[in-house]
Amino acid sequence: MATARDGKLTIRPLTAARVDDVKTVTRGTWGSTCWDLFPRYSAAQQRALGIVNTGPGTAEAKRREALAKLARRRKNSAGLVAYEGKEPIGFISLGPRYDFSRVANSKATPPVDDVAAWVVPCITVRRGYRGKGVAVAMIRAAVEYAGKRGAPAVEAHPRADGKRVHDDFAFFGTQAMFRKAGFRTIRGVLPGLRKGWTPRVTMRASCGSSPRISSASPRRSKPAR
Ligand SMILES: CC(C)(COP(=O)(O)OP(=O)(O)OC[C@H]1O[C@@H](n2cnc3c(N)ncnc32)[C@H](O)[C@@H]1OP(=O)(O)O)[C@@H](O)C(=O)NCCC(=O)NCCS
Question: Domains in the chain, start-ordered, CATH in brackets?
Answer without folding.
Answer: 4-222 (3.40.630.30)
